[in-house]
Design goal:
The chain is of the alpha+beta class. The protein has one domain: DD-peptidase/beta-lactamase superfamily (Beta-lactamase), CATH 3.40.710.10. Helix content is 42%, strand content 16%. The strands form 3 sheets. It has a 5-stranded antiparallel sheet, sandwiched between helices. The protein has a two-stranded antiparallel ribbon with strand order 3-4. β8 and β9 form a beta hairpin. α3 packs antiparallel against α4 and α4 crosses α5. It starts with a helix and ends with a helix.
Length: 298
């Protein structure tokens, strides 16, 4: 009887020791960061639901946002104006640098159509029209953009233009890949906005009855290995930028990158590795133990 009890206690202790070793191994694995070969100088992968970081590379380095700024423009717009509100394009949209819709001064466009223009085609004139329609001027609208950025914890971001176009002053507006994660996570709360970032094409029609075709700049939407919803950006100083999600109205991961020289490859790597990291993170504990045992005996 005593031998049986001692045997049971020994067995329980052995299981306990093995479990502790397993947990220690899990903690060490958690601390390790996988290596993803990227051309981007900065990148982050996070869980969409809670924002937990799964991977990062120079997450706090500041770089120009380029057209990823249009995501914040969209967020601020939907928070301050109804989608069916008509905005009359002013003469200032004629002076905006491409990419443009192009909009026509004096013509009315619904906010939802202008949002499609900035998130599908990345139209700078539509971004200016939204800013003026919401706040009266792009300068006033930028104040709202920065207020919203502070509100959602984007501590290392500063916006000057609704389009993300540079102002001519070096480093005047900036963001980090860590902050872009917070922004795309906020945008993901709006199914309408997320849906637009997953569209390859669309159209808009103004009060003049003219229909205009929109086509995305996000070539990853055509990827054979699976699309990545999101917003691309480019300026000479910023290089290639991106903030997006895996393709779903309820995404598992969100990811961002700044200063990329090979955007489409970088996006693909972040999406594929991000989904693998997510899968591993949420694997059933029993399966994790089985995998651990297999590794130990192999």
């Amino acid at each position: 009887m005593k031998y049986s009890i001692r045997k049971n206690i020994t067995g329980v202790c052995l299981i306990g020791v093995l479990f502790c070793i397993f947990l220690s191994g899990c903690i060490q694995e958690e601390k390790k960061q996988i290596e993803i070969q990227l051309s981007a100088r900065s990148a982050v992968i996070a869980e969409a639901k809670n924002g937990r970081i799964l991977y990062s590379k120079n997450p706090k380095s500041k770089y120009p946002p380029a057209s990823t700024a249009k995501i914040m423009t969209a967020i601020v717009a939907v928070e301050n104006m109804k989608l069916d509100t008509e905005i009359i394009a002013s003469s200032s949209i004629s002076r905006v640098e491409p990419t443009v819709v192009p909009l026509s001064p004096g013509v009315g466009y619904k906010l939802k159509d202008l949002l499609a223009a900035i998130l599908i085609k990345s139209a700078n004139d539509a971004a200016v029209a939204i800013a003026e329609g919401v706040s009266g001027s792009e300068q006033n609208f930028a104040i709202l953009m920065n207020e919203k950025a502070r509100q959602i914890g984007m501590e290392n971001t500063y916006f000057v233009t609704a389009s993300g176009l540079p102002t001519g002053k070096k480093d005047e507006q900036y963001t980090t890949s860590e902050d872009l994660i917070k922004m795309i996570r906020e945008a993901s709360k709006y199914i309408f906005l997320l849906g637009l970032m997953g569209q390859t094409e669309g159209s808009l029609q103004g009060s003049d009855g003219k229909e205009i075709y929109l086509k995305t700049h996000n070539k990853s939407l055509y990827s054979e290995t699976g699309a990545s919803w999101g917003k691309t950006g480019y300026t000479k100083e910023a290089r290639r930028t991106f903030a997006g999600t895996d393709p779903s109205p309820s995404p598992k991961i969100i990811f961002s990158l700044l200063k990329s020289n090979n955007l489409w490859k970088d996006i693909e790597k972040l999406k594929i590795n991000g989904l693998e990291l997510y899968k591993e993170k949420h694997k059933n504990m029993i399966l994790k133990i089985i995998d651990w045992i297999r590794k130990k005996i192999s």
